[in-house]
Structure formats: structure tokens, C-alpha cells
Amino acid sequence: MTNKSGSHAGERTPLLNGEAASSDQDANHVQHRSRSKLYTFFLDAGHTPGNDSDSVAVRSTAYTWHIIKVTLLSNYVNFLLPMVPIGIVAGALNWNSTAVFTINFFAIIPLAAVLSFATEEIAFELGETLGGLLNATFGNAVELIVSIVALKDGQIEVVQSSMLGSILSNLLLVMGMCFLFGGLIHRGQNGAGTEQTFSGAVAQTTCSLMTLSSASLVIPAALYAVLSQNEQEDKQASILILSRGTAIILLLLYIMYLFFQLRTHSNLFDSEAQAEEEEHGGGPQMGPIAAAAVLVVITVLVAICADYLVGSIDDIVEKANISKAFIGLILIPIVGNAAEHVTAVVVALRNKMDLAMGVAIGSSIQIALGVTPFLVIIGWIIDKPMSLRFETFETVAFAVSVLVVTYTVQDGKSNYLEGAMLLGLYTIIAVAFYATPSGAFDKNGGV
């Protein structure tokens, strides 16, 4: 009996184990398929179930979800997107000014990243020249929107500081971090150190343009000093005439630079274009109409959040006893550039210095030759005295920064020591503006 039972048990055990193993495999397979479907539905930016359905309603719903999903997954900073509705509610309900400023500050960061993503998606469909032009035009759209809102509100000091801050953060902070971290990773061996390389011709050309933009700020400041010394009563009108004429010239030079970069001498920028294509993944993830719709929606949201952000600045200055120059120079540039700043550092770590330099210096040129002169023209149209006569302190800080950057990049090589130097200069300027008492600068925009 026992032997038979033992034999019986021994004969049945493998079968039972086999059934159990088969059952476990089936369960695992079902679970894997379920997990795979969930992943495809929520996290796969390349495909969404239902896009190939015969039903128009299902296909439209699936495509709408696909666009939303691709947009949400486009950048790691998009986890801050819940701040957008909270910031709008905070502004609409007149919450504490510090809360309104802080929430909308963090809300604009992911909106800037999505705006950049939608612009790139449209640019893929327009071809190299038109796509490059679109990227150049919308590359600093957030800074432009925030500045126009501030300009309409009469916050000319904030506008000027944010323009200068965007340039300095790109030239010193971003480029310094790229040089520092990229140089540390690719430093070579002790006693046989290596340097990272980039296109010296592109760096020299762009630095020459930055020197020109520096001169466009030094000349109005010098004229203002002369007129003040001679006690000229019409110095306001003189500075505005000079600034508006200079703005038109700078915009023409910026258009010529775009033609130089995108058409006649595009070969100099080939490595940058190839690196951008590789970084983006090689192709569009949504159609041009969908991308344009995302662009419009995000632009409206940026304008709303910027309105509440700018509206809270006066209270912040009064309560925190910090200058508007510091808010414009240090805080606001973080809003529009956070995502691309991280991108520049990441590609520098991968030793793609041409792309990193393109982000840093390219954005600076857009601000200096494109956005700032454009804001002077906008101020002219809406009767706001926006000029290129920055405070002497701001002008000197800008001129010194351009000089240091030019000497740093002229050889087409970089290392971590040069990066530390640029970061050191940026920190000195930031501390100087932080130490500046509130109201120390003119409140009339330098005129």
C-alpha cells in the first residue's frame, strides 16, 4: 500500500510540477502582455493602440491621446506641468505674491521645454533652411513673451535685466558648466591631459557678433554720460533715437547672420546640425498640424503664467528687499532656459562640443541681436521708453563677460579650468547684483 502510494505519488509529481510550471508560464505571459499593453498605451512615444482603428471616433481619440502622450514624454522637466493650472489658479485668486511668483516660475520651466519640442517637430517638416529659421525665431520664445508682458506692465528694468541675464547665463553659466563637466570627464591622464575641441571658425564668428552687440550697449551708455555731464535736457529723446536706429541695424545684421548660417556658409555648422538630429532621435514624433496646435496652446499658457509672474514682482521686491535687476538677471533666465541648459551639459559630457557651443553662443546671439532689438521696436510701437541704454554697471558686466568668453573660445579648445573661470565670473556678477539695493537703478528703463 505504502509502496503503491509512494509509487503513485512519484509518478504524479512530475506531472503536477509540469502543470504548475505551465500555469505559471501562462500567468507570466498574460501579465507580461498586460504590462506591455499598459507600457505601449502610456509610455511608448512611438505608438499608441487605436491609431490604426477603422472607427473614426476611436482613431481620433487615440491620436489625440498620442499627441498628449508624446508631448508629456518629450522632456524630463515635464513633471512640473501640474504647476501650470495651480499657478493660473493662484494668480486668478490673488494668492500671496510670493506663492504666485514661485508657482508660476516653476510652471513656465516645463512650458518652455514643450514649446521648444513643438518648434523642433514643425521644423522637421519644413526642411533644413525653413526649419532652422523657425528654430532661430522661436528659440527664445519664452523670454520674448515674458519680456513683452513685462514691457506692457512698464517693468523696463526687469526687461533689460532679463535680456542681459539670458545672455550672461548662456555665455558664462551654461558654457562654463559645459567646459567644466565635459573637461573633467575628458581630461585624459595625469601629466597627459587632453582638451575638448569645437569649431573655432564658428566660435570666432559668433564671438565677433557678441562683441558688436556689446558695443551697441556701450555707445548709448557713453552718449548718456556725455549728455548728463553737459546737462542736456533732451537726452531722453537722443537716447531713444539712437537705440531705435541701432535696433533696426542689429535686426538687419541678425537676418544676415541667419542667411550666413543657414544658406551660404551652412557647411561651417554641419556638425552642429548633425548632432542636433542625433540628439532629437532622427525624426518627428507628431504631424506639423498637431505640433502647431501644441505650439499655440503652450504659447497662450506661457503668456498667462508670465502675466501673473510679472504682476507679482513689485510685491516680491518690496517684501524680500531684493532688486528687480537681480530677479531679471538671475531668476527669470532660469525659467526659459532650464531644459536646454541641461541638454547642453549632457551633450558636452558626450564630447559633442559643437552642439553644446551652438546652444550656448547661439542662444546668446538670438537674444543680443534678435530679441533685445525687437523689444526696443515693440516699446516704440506701444509707446514704452525701452532703450539700449543699460545701466553702466550692467553694461560693464556684459562687456567684460564677452571679452573673457572671446579669449576663452578663440583657440577652438576647452578644458575644465576654463569652465571654472567662466562660472567664477558668473558667480561674481550674480553676487554683485544680489548685493545691489532695491531701487538703486533707474526705474525708467535707462532713459
UniProtKB/TrEMBL annotation:
Keywords: Antiport, Calcium, Calcium transport, Ion transport, Membrane, Transmembrane, Transmembrane helix, Transport, Vacuole. The keyword Ion transport applies. The chain crosses the membrane at residues 73-93, 100-118, 130-151, 163-182, 202-227, 239-260, 289-313, 325-349, 355-381, 393-410, 416-435. It comes from the Eukaryota. Residues 97-262, 292-434 form the Sodium/calcium exchanger membrane region domain. Its main location: membrane. One of its GO terms (cellular component) is endomembrane system. Gene3D superfamilies: NCX, central ion-binding region (1.20.1420.30). GO terms for molecular function: calcium:proton antiporter activity. GO terms for biological process: intracellular calcium ion homeostasis. InterPro entries: CaH_exchang (IPR004713), CAX-like (IPR004798), NaCa_Exmemb (IPR004837), NCX_ion-bd_dom_sf (IPR044880). It is found in: Endomembrane system; Vacuole membrane. Has a role in promoting intracellular calcium ion sequestration via the exchange of calcium ions for hydrogen ions across the vacuolar membrane. Involved also in manganese ion homeostasis via its uptake into the vacuole. PANTHER family: VACUOLAR CALCIUM ION TRANSPORTER. NCBIfam families: caca2 (TIGR00846), cax (TIGR00378). Belongs to the Ca(2+):cation antiporter (CaCA) (TC 2.A.19) family. This is Vacuolar calcium ion transporter. The lineage of its organism: Eukaryota, Fungi, Dikarya, Ascomycota, Pezizomycotina.
